[in-house]
Amino acid sequence: MTDTSVEESQSNAAARRAKGEFVRGVSGFRAAIGSAEFPAEPGRYHLFVALNCPWCHRVTLARSVLGLHASISMDVVFPSRTDQDDPAGPNLWQFAPTRRATLTGAALPECTLETATGKGHRLIKEIYAAEGADEGSVPVLYDKKAGRIVNNESAEILRMLGQNAAALGGAAEVDLYPDDATLRAEIDALNAEIYTDINNGAYKAGFSSDQSVYAAAFQAYFDRLAQLEARLAADNRPFLCGDHFTEADLRLFPTLYRHDPVYYLRMKLNGARILDYPYLWRWLCRVYALPGVRAASAMNHCRQGYFGRSWNNVIPLGPFVPMAYPEAYEHPELAG
Fold it and tell me: How confident is the model at residue 215 (pLDDT cuts 50, 70, 90)?
């Protein structure tokens, strides 16, 4: 499988973190569906995800738009991780379908128990530990037949689902990465720019504790938004690469979906709203309207997950002007 991930340099990572920079780690499981070890078979594979996580959102979007609901099962963790009082320790992804969300005062119906391993694990970390690994991240692509983790790098999972959709039992005729060398080069270039400045850039801004690092990430994020706005505006194209929805659109969507209601405040990305970019706003609404996209997106999980990790665990109720989110994404006319 072609390497699709754009990984952050790990050079001097510890020193960079000590100075206040957010440095994303590297995923350790990198096998591929379609290999002799992990053949593409309907009903064999399973996903462990957090619906608030944008990297998981890539994968749930692919599963949904490719029509893989029936052939790839899925478990969903609670959007807030374990706290200091948990016997296993804090900051761990957990299956907790009865836990009440701060935002709603009720359990979140999308959350599940762990159903794929036969062990009923409470923590994602336990699934990794069964294979001798010390990781604890999501998403996780799991082989139920072999009882093994296949991959935990979202970009690679997204690509392999797309390339093996038919063999996996996909019911939708969507080609996220068409077999055209020029178009693939365009998608790859956009993926790299979007990952660096927007997907990971949001985290660079929001989770860094150094003002200069934050400022650089903030500037790069909004510079890239302006470039994407100009790209769409130049010929009024519906999607980033023209007339068809591709992997580049799918990888941009999770961050922009979160920007106005979450990242604007939580990630200190208050330079502008996506609503202030007419072409990007209409693009966002256009993608949201595609079959499967809305079903793979969960704003309550995003609000609970991001603000539930803040110092007081209080979830903001807005914005509600000009309209509440995600309902606003049904109204492209809001951008004028």
Answer: very high
User: Does residue 6 lie in a domain region?
Assistant: no
Domain around 228: 181-335
Handedness of CA 143, 149, 154, 155 (dihedral sign): negative
| Residue 166 dihedral angles phi and psi, to the nearest 5° | -65, -45
**Residues 45, 53, 142, 264: which is the catalytic one?**
53
pLDDT of residue 301 exceeding 50: yes
Q: Is 329 a residue of the active site? A: no
The pLDDT of residue 103 is 86
Contact 116, 75 (CB under 8 A): yes
Query: Is residue 56 flagged as an active site residue?
Result: no
Rounded Cα–Cα distance for residues 231 and 226 (Å)? 9
Among the listed residues 142, 203, 288, 306, the single catalytic one is 203
Q: Which of 168, 192, 209 is the last residue of a domain?
A: 168
pTM attached to this predicted model: 0.92
Q: What is the pLDDT of residues 91-116, one digit of tens each?
A: 999 999 999 999 899 999 999 999 99
Q: How far apart are CA 259 and CA 323, in angstroms?
A: 15
Instruction: Evaluate whether 77 touches 108 at the Cβ level (below 8 Å).
Output: no
Do residues 266 and 295 both lie within one domain?
yes
